[in-house]
């Protein structure tokens, strides 16, 4: 597949998640609520998660922002739901490497998140793409450092 075709496919994946977000809403029985804000561009996200016995049982998001931040939140919730906390943190680290244009290796299924690798060409958008992921890390860190 040529680079132009791959780029177009990635744009389609991003727009699909933006227009039809997965796991959008509030998780009523969640035990973690994380509010994140990107003051640079105004993106804001609220994650509600239910974590039990080191596993992310469910996760949802709501918020407002650009297509990149909303698509990334959709992809993140889809990818980490049902995963153990350690795997979710590994995925977050890998995602950070992807959007920064760094080399990465993993045996984990990355789902649709590789579609955001083009963000590395636009440094101002990296914060948009990582907003939900930083929220995930903050929620896990806060819960496990109590």
UniProtKB/TrEMBL annotation:
GO BP of this protein: iron-sulfur cluster assembly
Pfam families cross-referenced by the UniProt entry: NifU_N (PF01592)
InterPro entries assigned: NIF_FeS_clus_asmbl_NifU_N
CDD domains, per database record: IscU_like (cd06664)
Protein name as annotated: SUF system NifU family Fe-S cluster assembly protein
Organism this protein belongs to: Perspicuibacillus lycopersici
Residue intervals of the NIF system FeS cluster assembly NifU N-terminal domain: 10-128
Family statement drawn from the similarity comment of this UniProt entry: Belongs to the NifU family.
Domain of life: Bacteria
GO MF terms, alphabetically ordered: iron ion binding; iron-sulfur cluster binding
